[in-house]
User: Fold these one by one.
Assistant:
Number 1:
Amino acid sequence: MTEQQLLRRIKRKTGEAIGAFNLIEDGDRILVAVSGGKDSWALLHVLRELCRRAPVNYQLVPVTIDPGFADFDSAAVAACLRAHGFEPVVEKSNCAEIIASHLRPGSSYCAFCARLRRGALYSCASRLGCNKIALGHHLDDHIETLLLNLFFSGAIAAMSPKLAADNGIHTVIRPLVYVEEELIREWVVMKGLPQIDCACPQKSASDQQRQQIKQLLATMSATNPHIKNSLIKALGNVQARHLLDKRLKDF
């Protein structure tokens, strides 16, 4: 596919999710979390494309959380945003320092970092007058999270495309929920967008389980190319009375 064909496909799937879950409404001011990775680039560009012909009016505010990791190049993210016509906001944080001094032995480095980043996004959204926060989690992220929880946490849980934030003020949205990671990867390469690493010092160690899940899905997809679509469909087709959760006994 060409760059434009890829973009149209991503736009169609994103629009489908926005409509299905009412992710964007008239008057929304949306903080778009831009990490510098492929997913956040795709999210920002696609939301801008959709905004041009949307039946509702909404604003996009790209925000980059600088976690304080020594090698994270927030200046490069900001420069790319400007080059593509966006006005960047870089929020400096002390996530790296807090993690170094407060992470408990045996706790997840990534999970702790994600909570700190999310808190920084909430604070920034309040300051900038944003009522929603858009994150770049795609279809593969949702499926992998489901399987990670099943295999390693003993829970049937994934990520919601629309969720009231922990602070009770903002709404977190994930418009790329129906978009496959491979589509995003191909489009970002064709578009010539940089992929700026988060520079997390623990990335390789903390990512091991997710890589195992990715490999499992790749192996299964080789014999059943529809496996991912089946799994994402399953997340919206919960048969509560066939589960063992005693809280669901009345179903």
Number 2:
Amino acid sequence: MNKIIAKKQLSAEVYEMIVEAPLIARSRKAGQFIIVQIDTDWGERIPLTIADADAAAGTLTIVFQTVGATTHKLALKKEGDCIENILGPLGNPTHIEKFGAVVCVGGGIGAAPLFPIVQAMKAAGNRVQVIIGARTKELVIFEDRMKQYADELIVVTDDGSYGRKALVTEPLKTYCAASPKPDMSVAIGPPIMMKFCEKTTAEFDVPILVSLNTIMIDGTGMCGGCRVTVGGETKFVCVDGPEFDGHKVDFDNMMLRMKAFKVREEEDHHACHMGMEVHGAKQGV
């Protein structure tokens, strides 16, 4: 049982929670993730990236978006409630070293898992340039936290309601075209965003790491649900990743596989959204 210490709603469908998990908090590294199970009786297991951790306090910070039944149930939990099971840390940590100049790109909720990587890259002595993007101003997250570590921070929105009106690839291209160009880049966000970040960096021969968030069930490589094609070989995101050389990832195949349960997810999202409205009405909110 893992107690929820704090909960905050960042936007209409994005929540941040601080939960007790002392063993994971002490051992986790940038880029790793956890698997959360809300109910022990046939409860779905969902992967969530660790957005931050406090080893001394024994807590993890998780950020998630309500997209299916389990994330909607998690969003209904309050401070003081408990999460049944948290497994982790899982996955391979981000390869951190002193590259020189590193540009880190976070799209939407991807800014949260990008944050520990920005911290670690800065601690390793890199010059860190950060780009975070969202559809609207209300969906921009982790800006203040990024400012604490970024040597440069650029915020873009699709509709121009905050920061620059642009896609993240626009400032990324500017950085890559500069002299000297970045020594490394990292991108986390929607698959289509990472695909075009890869194309942008490839044009200038800049290396890129991408963190993949595919369909995942057990986190041990046994189910095969998270398989992707990297460099022409089959890899499993949960045990071989979650980070890969972006120039080797078959994004089109990955996005096709991720649509497998799209209809069911949309049905669950609608049903759970209605349920949350009923719950809020009962609570008088």
Number 3:
Amino acid sequence: MFEIDYGDDGEVMCSGRLDASQCAKAQSFMDEIADTRTLDFSRLEYISSAGLGILLKTQKRLAESGSALRITNVNNHIYDVFRYSGFNAIFDIKAKE
């Protein structure tokens, strides 16, 4: 199960597992983002390569207008996925505090 929605402060709250079966839901939400946004991963348990692809596509689209995605509250496992894939050089990522 994967959930994505805006939090009270405008951050995008992601929870559950972002895998291939949830990509349509995530892509639909990300397509509506038009400016710099922070994604809160404090409740995200897992991200697959398909999920990374959605984030990369969104980041590239936003970069064309000078915007970007920022990712906060990333657990160690998900940070390792970003690091091993080289995505830590593409995104501004903050570990879980």
